[in-house]
Model the fold of this input.
Amino acid sequence: MKRMQSVLLLGCGFGLGAFAVLAALVGVRSAPVAQAASNDRYQDYVMATGAVNISPKLQTDGVWMLDYKSGKLLGTVIDKSLGKIIGWAEVDLVAEFEVAPKQDVHFMMTTGWVSAGQSALYVAEVTTGKFGVYTMGPAANGPGIIIMRHDLSSFRAARPVADIAPPAAAIPPEGGKPPLDIKK
Done:
């Protein structure tokens, strides 16, 4: 009889434990997790971050800001030892992308990795079809940074669509006769 009571108490203990675990899993919801992104946008501003290689021994974070109102691309780096921003460099995107006055523009930008400790900024303006590649680096004449353009091109087709090669099935085989199209 005593053994039966011990088994019954042990079973009740396991049952209550299982119930408590199940209640905790169902009743407790985890808090939302904050996730960092390398790009963000708010109204007329776009921000992106990426690594900047100031020197072989000093790699730091770079911050890019695109200001639609002024048509400027701004860039800065963070001095990790001081925890301070090292000035701002700028590029006039209106002139750079040859945007007409009062033209409706639509910029997109993101960063990408180009080498150890160095990111590039990729900027596209979809109305003009222009695409630019930029990096930040140390200023040649003392403290501060500069923004360097590496390339600026168009992502629009330079030739009419009709010049694009047809699908392989439409190209006649050797001998000049196209394949028969039998529809019955």
